[in-house]
Structure formats: structure tokens, C-alpha cells
Amino acid sequence: MSNIHQFTSKELILEKASQWISAIDRGLSTQEQEQFKLWMLQSTAHQNAVYELAQLWDDLSVLNELSVLFPNKHSAGPSYVYGIAASVVAALMMCSYFLLNMQSNFNQDLAKVNYTKIYKTKVGEQATYVLPDGTIVQLNTNSSLEVAYSQGRRQLLLSRGEGRFNVAKDASRPFSVMAGDKSFTALGTVFNVQRNTSSDLELVVTEGKVMITDPSVAVNADDFKAYQQADNSNQDIRQINANIVISGEKAIIEQSVTKPITQLSVDDVQRDLAWQNGMLIFNGEKLVDALNEVSRYTATRFELSSDELARIKVAGVFKAGDVAGLLESLQNNFSIEHERLGEHVVSLKYQKKS
User: Fold this and answer.
1) Could you give the residue ranges of the DSSP H alpha helices within the chain?
2) CA 156, CA 152: separation in Å to the nearest integer?
3) Mean of the per-residue pLDDT values for the chain?
4) CA distance 123 to 131
5) Average pLDDT of span 238-249
6) Residue 114, Cβ density class (10 Å: 0-12 exposed, 13-18 middle, ≥19 buried)
7) Stretch 192-219: mean pLDDT, rounded?
8) Of 208, 243, 295, 307, which is least surrounded by CB within 10 A?
9) How does strand 301-304 pair with strand 345-350?
10) Quick one: which of 296, 279, 320 has its CA closest to 123?
11) CA end-to-end distance (rounded Å), the chain
12) Rounded Cα distance, 318 and 307, in Å
């Protein structure tokens, strides 16, 4: 239970830090600056989260503003804290009130403008981005994501690759990710979408709910509120031919058909989402499938000498893109030797017996 509490605490800090970063980007009032300073001084975890996200923000003005507010970064510490100790106690009692109002004002301001941008990663690259509303997006290797925010909707298009979405709550503007011929609408959610082809997709939900629909189904604010309370037995969900996937579940779409939703174990979730920590986990997959997954993170391609070799079951934890480590493991565990046929091609075959 302690580990779960710690993870939740980190998520909450990161979410709050993203809200502050967004607010800094649009400009803090004098009152908000004071509240932000108080929040930063509460713990080094708050400070670390803010500076980590600031490094990912695509506008240097955020880092510049932080350098003004905190000239010595984390050193605005003990002496300053003790100097304002009496005022901090009273101010913290009002902190929640000001934060809620600040976030409300920010959402109202954001609703007046449109925001479009394309985020991309190269083969072997992973990156994390903070969107204007505080949503945190982590893109996997060789991915492309187009973001389009408007007054009534937050629409994203995953045209290639895989992404994790930690969605900022905003009931007035539904958040949907389109991939291939499906749309995934967040109902207060953290979820992962992998696009294999235009008709083959995977969805893993780790928090809240996600509704899978055809992209032609436009979810407005009123629909969103109703769907938040719905499940797959709901008549409205059936009428639009939708599926709702909840935390701890996985949906696989093959040839545009959503397969029966499956419940995941903790190990299953760790294996599917290991990429978020830069790792790949295999647990009995065929060698050919494991190599296809490895190839997503590198320019290297593999040639297998036989179908028998392709069907070998492999297991282990590997760093994404670590081809040398994989080849060494195959040599040691299965006596599979390799030969480089070019800069980016590796041939695999059983080691000859002497």
C-alpha cells in the first residue's frame, strides 16, 4: 500500500506542477506569483517537478520567468522560509482557494483561443510534452501526434507510433485521440494508445475510463458528462456502437474490429507499458515477434534462418534499442549466433556444433 500511496502523491505533484507551468506561460498575476512561491517552498519535490516540466516546455519564456522568480533555483530555501514562517501558515490556509480560482480562470482564457501543433519523435527517441491545458503526453519511438485545441474540444491525431496521455480534467472540452479509424475519448483518464496500422490498434487504460468510437462520433460537453457515468450496458453507448474501457483493462482492435476487452494483471500492465521507462519486457513471445518490437527502436533489421528459429519463445528485460545486449542474450541462452550483413541488417542462425 505504501508504494501505491507514493505513486499517487507523485502523480498529484506532477499534475499540479503542470498547471503552474501552463499558468506561468500565459502570465502570473502578482497574487498568483506569491501563491506559486509558497507552493514551491513546501517541498523540494514541488521544485523538482516544476523544473523538470519546464525543461520540456517548448517556450523558453517559462524558464526565463522561473529564473526571475528563483534566481538561484533551489537555493531560495531555509533562510527565506524561516523569514516568512508566520505569513506562510495563514497563506497556506487560502492556497487551495486561490489555486482553484487560478485554474478556473486559466481554462476560461484558454477556451478563447485555438492551439495547433505537431509533435514528433525519431526512431529510438522518446519524449515528454506538456500541452497548454496541463495534459502530459509521452511519445514513444517514431511517433507523430497532431494537437488541435478549440473552444469546445481537445482533438489529437496519432498518425504514427504510440503515446501515453495523462489528461487534464476539463468537462467543458472533451479530450479525444484519433488513431486510424478509431477515436479514444478520455473520461478522466491516463491511457496508452499504440498504432500498429490504420486498422490495428491497442489501448491500455491505467486510470479512469476511455470510450472507443468511430471518429465520426463527435462528443460534446453534454455527451461527455453523460458518458462519464455510463458503462457498456448503457443504451446510449450501444446506439453509437461504442466500447468503454476502464482502468486495468486493454482493448485490441484488429482489422477495425474491437476484440473482447481483457482485464490485465499487474505484470501485464508493466510489460505493455515498460517502454515508458525505456525498457522492453518479453515473457514467452515468439522470437520473430520480439525482434519486430525491438526493431521499432532501432534502424537494425533481423533475418531469421528458419521458421523453427522464429518460433523460439523468449523472456527477459532489455533496454530499448540495445541490440548488442539482445544478441549477447540470444547467444548465451539459445546458442544463436549472428552475422552482420550490412550496417543495419543482422542475420540470426543456430550456432554450428563443433
Assistant:
1) 2-26, 30-41, 44-56, 61-69, 78-83, 85-110, 221-228, 235-239, 266-272, 287-295, 307-310, 323-334
2) 13
3) 81
4) 22
5) 92
6) exposed
7) 92
8) 307
9) parallel
10) 296
11) 54
12) 24
